[in-house]
Task: structure prediction
Amino acid sequence: MTTTDQIADVAPTRVSARGLLRALTRSRVTLAGLVITGVLTIVAVLALLGALPHDPLVQDPPNRLLAPSAEYWFGTDQFGRDVFSRVAAGVGNSARIAAVAVAIAAVIGTAAGLVAGFYRGFSDTAIGGVTNILFAFPPLLLALALASVFQRTWFTVAVAIAIVYTPIFVRVTRGPVLSLREIDYVRAAVSTGQSRPAVMLKHVLPNITSIIIVQVTLSLSWAVLTEASLSFLGLGTPPPAPSLGSMIFEARTLVTVAPWTMLAPGLVVVALIAGLNLLGDGLRDRYDRRGRGAR
Amino acid sequence: MLDTLVHNGVVRRVAQSVFTLFGVAVVVFVVLRAIPGDQITANLGTEAAALTPDQRAALESYYGLDQPLLTQFFGWLGNILTGNLGFSARAQTSVADLTLQALPVTFELAVLSILLALVIGIPLGMLSASRPNSARDATGQVVGLAGLSVPAFLLATTLTSVLASRFGFNPNGEPFARFFDDPLLNLQQMLLPSLVLGFGVAAPILRTTRTAVLEVASDDFVRTARAKGVPARRLQIRHVLRNALVPIATMTGLQFGYLLGGAVVVEQIFSIPGIGRQVLLGIQQNEYALVQSTVLVIALAFVLVNLLTDLLYRIIDPRVRAA
Result:
């Protein structure tokens, strides 16, 4: 999980809804990612709406550590709670945090990258300075330090992750904006007397959508990973809300007696991250700077 | 001499790092002041509520909390620069001493992890690249995807619990042995943590190797060498891999941030008394000075490694100098 590995090397292009649909369905890699994330998104939405077979929080001691069955699909944990419902609720929690964190990072980061690249001068220096400072912290460490400062709720965890990922969006958008501002049609739009914000939004922003889409997908997978790691360390989503990371933490002593308590959240968190990675990889290859087939 | 340094952007790059580090110090200071409660409540816990206003004022002046924030900041910065990183009340030692104890441990972990990552990543990447879109390529790609997608904490907990319960292998259950005290036990204790971190780092190295090897392999000089009759194995290693090493080396240097972040998780799970565990303990026990200074030390290490990678890169690859 490094900063450069997290930066998508993507050619700036305008992405149409139809083009995106084609990019998503044409390659097997993206399609696999799409199916996995699609299924897990449905699970997340259902869980957030409360449509679960059991209450993920209700304890039922007589039914503790039951193996998976028709009643309890993924078995029960040491308090008799339904593991399936808890995993589903955990996916909902992960998805909610990752989506909010990446949305904040994408909006603020892209806006800052646009301003820095398009206006240059002082704003570029200032934004570049702040970006460098945030990049000076190892990502997980920064998230950890920030999460420990805030009063913990799912939203503050999302904000902590957003702060870590904002500079990445600044960096991936600024460069392409720098070259786009020198392109004839952008210069022409400026010379016709359109205001600079208007040119920025109408002529520059649409041309970096490919970069933003790829970066959003990859960032979502790192956000899920970061949230899970924070929860594992006890600094993520506060209990009793189920989170995949804290479930794995609790299951570490139960592995030999009740392996399902570890396997279920473990496999699901890997599937969620891998699905998003596949989606991001496929899209990155599609919009790769070196064109298709270079990889 | 100075002229060439300025021309190559080295001076500019170093100045930028110094500025960044100052910014890092400001961020660390501000963020930790934002924590609800202060040094006094952290030390006394709930008893802090029983303090009379006079006692509180005395303590505040003792800790310098009654000073203006700017004075506090520069006082703190001055201390840091003279090697005074603060005092840990729980450990009853200076943070500088704790850090000096912890840094070599994390350094050893990082070096071992990178070595393992290179041993896993480069051969698999070359294997993938040797026949793109084949079964062996798919295998390499799956390993790469797994490295990116399996969280370090999951791999670490699964490995420890399975190995301990099935094979009774649990070297990390024993008190931590430093390398120079008991190298054999130390290496056993470092094995699993560096394997876990190395697996995570192997993924980007594998991918970089694959891309770089594929790119170099399509270069003209490779075709020429092949036409000249250079044996395949020699061609792969002496011609292709050697030229692909620059991006691989850069990627390796850049993995340092991942290692420092991952070290927090892995050191905690395997009870390795490194710098990552020090931060986590500080956070859990509300020890400001400890967290503040340790985070600063880690950021300093990270900035220095990035700077060195960047400068080394300029030396290795003359093409970068002009850019």
Remarks:
- The beta strands of chain B are 87-88, 93-94.
